[in-house]
Specification:
Elements (H helix, E strand, L loop, with lengths): L11 H17 L7 H24 L10
Length: 69
């Protein structure tokens, strides 16, 4: 099965990262009741931004060496 980078849910490691991030955020906030979705969506946004940044870094052309005149 080929992984589709446009659909993050094809990657179980990504889903696990979102779960762990949401749990961490919830714990850091003092484990408030009734705000599970808030932490899930915040974690999802963070993980998607991280993935996007990783993709941008991987697709950047290598930097040209500086010429010393």
């Amino acid at each position: 099965m080929q992984k589709d980078r446009t659909d993050p849910w094809v990657d179980p490691l990504f889903e696990q990262r979102v779960r762990e991030t949401a749990y961490f955020l919830w714990e850091q906030a003092g484990r408030p009741d009734g705000q599970e979705q808030q932490y899930w969506f915040e974690a999802l946004e963070r993980c998607l931004r991280e993935r996007q940044a990783d993709d941008l870094l991987q697709n950047q052309p290598p930097a040209l060496p500086e010429s010393h005149s």
